[in-house]
TrEMBL record:
InterPro entries, per the entry: 2Fe-2S_ferredoxin-like_sf, 2Fe-2S_ferredoxin-type, Beta-grasp_dom_sf, Corrinoid_activation_enz, Raco-like_middle, Raco-like_middle_sf, RACo_C, RACo_linker
Residue ranges, annotated region (Disordered): 654-681
Name of protein: ASKHA domain-containing protein
TM region(s), chain numbering: none
Organism of origin: Microbaculum marinisediminis
Amino acid sequence: MSEDISQVKDALVLFMPSGRRGRFPLGTPVLEAARQLGVYVESVCGGRGICGRCQVSVTEGVFAKHKITSAATHLSPFSDTEARYKAKRGLPEDRRLSCSALIEGDLVIDIPIEAQTNRALVRKRAEARPIPRDPVMQLCYVEVDEPDMEQPLGDADRLVRALEAQWGFVGARCEFRLLPLVQGLLRQGDWKVTVAVHTEGIPTIVSIWPGFHDRLYGIAVDIGSTTIACHLSDMLTGRTVSSTGTANPQIRFGEDLMSRVSYLMMNPDGLPALTTAVRGAIEGLIDKAVNDAGASRDDVLDAVFVGNPIMHHLFLGIDPRELGGAPFALAVSGALTFPAREIGLGVNPGARVYMLPCIAGHVGADAAGAALAEGPQKGKEVTLLVDVGTNAEIVLGNRHRILAASSPTGPAFEGAEISSGQRAAPGAIERVRIDPETLEPKIRVIGLEAWSDEEEFAEKIDQVGVTGICGSGIIEVIGEMFLAGIITQDGVIDGSLAAKSPRIEANGRTFSYLLWRGDQEIRITQNDVRAIQLAKAALYAGVKLLMDRYGCTHVDRIKLAGAFGAHIDTKYAMLIGLIPDCDLKHVSAVGNAAGTGARMCLLNRGHRAEVEDLVTRIEKIETALEPRFQEHFVAAMALPNKIDPFPNLARAVTLPAPKTPLPGEGRGRRGERRRARPDPA
């Protein structure tokens, strides 16, 4: 990575957040590179440097996973065109016009959120659920006695005394920063004020309004490694009044968690940039949420956050590098309560933040929130709760015993590491069916309800296009290829079928399947199949380790959480061996369970005590240190599994008979079968 760029003729360019990459001759405009890779960058003026819509920025640093050392100096110097545009309309210091900036070395290029016209959908909606309301923040209307020469108490002291007399808050106090404001606010309200009281611990007045005030809001935020979701709740009614989400801008520092830790190892001074990125995204979500609800930031007085351990640390500004290796030490694991102003959260200065506790080094507050919401620890049945993401959290058990672990699935389920993969956005293939006789496919894309063999699809497809394949589509196409006999149980694309269908294409020493013919041809390559096998095997191996430790050979119920889990067909998830065998009637998607857990803690103080007690009872299993992980992983590479039976699945789907690949297919240079290895993260 220390290669002299003056001696090379091309450069590796990675675009974020799409994850698309390619090599380009030096001197290629960044806009042209983006277009060749199918990365949408808007350019109304046709690349003449007039519209300014093609702005990009360079993310600097060493990206070991991608073998890229990226620097702003790897772009051509600021051009006259850019200088004219900046003088006339302004251009942020870290931005370049991609139509004018030329590639002169390896680069990680970030497409700003506002420029991502075709950007990913964020599907972490608030699940409808009644939550008993008992918040820690309370509004109290108080009538205060006017000053009296006979009783020379200070105005703040009389406010506290009135609060105790009228609301029963014994031993209350007023936050120090409010003391200079008390006299003016009392007189402005004619000795009648509304106070916000933080009732946890010592009752504390944290905000004061003159007269009567009846607006109090709280936010619940799920900080995922890929997406961030924010829900604004009316604390007086318990109703969720608005929800919004966005892609996590930290993606430009690494698609998965370990890549971000690796970035910090290579760039020790990079922590502020990661923290600023995630906090900035949350600030934007708060703005949108309060505007959508017609609310005010000053009325937001409580905030609850959940996230995996690395996102938890990065949000708090804590270096997560200790989580990069054994013993995976957390800087802090317990629940936290602190003033929102300590992290610069732009809400009411008296607002409080509550962070749910983490379970273990790689099992975070999001898993704790999901367990709180779905309650596997409360029932008789052995329940498996899986939050599918770049780092899958797994909870297994019942009221007698509860265990948890994480498994490094990587970003393949989010569309990364897949040749035509993308995040969920209009135009992404999300459903696939393949005729087992003709091997002809039909697809459905996000933004269009019709299947590709229906007239409506042909009439309307130009509105969204077919741009790639997202996670749910990847799961289905692998499952359908397996059912149609296109891939063997070992995940090898059967090249002999090229004689049967032109969709089976030779691709060097392996084969690929042509899923879509159009302006952009979409293929499923052997490497794509392998990426999904690696991801699903890692998750399944984690599940098996928990089952081993629990002492069970089957589960009674499976719940798939998270945005991805909510949109995959449970039958296909089981068909490829992502989850163990179970009666399909008892396999369900439960949506954003982590976000639901956060809202429960926002609206009810009892749930905070409940989750804090729960994490002390959960047995933590560190998959990276378990000797049987590799054994389970290798067996799980097969579809659906090399060893474990799937009787419930077999009753619902006719599984293909085992198939032997042609000589040389899926083999290494010396003819031996390649053994896939799990992500060392």
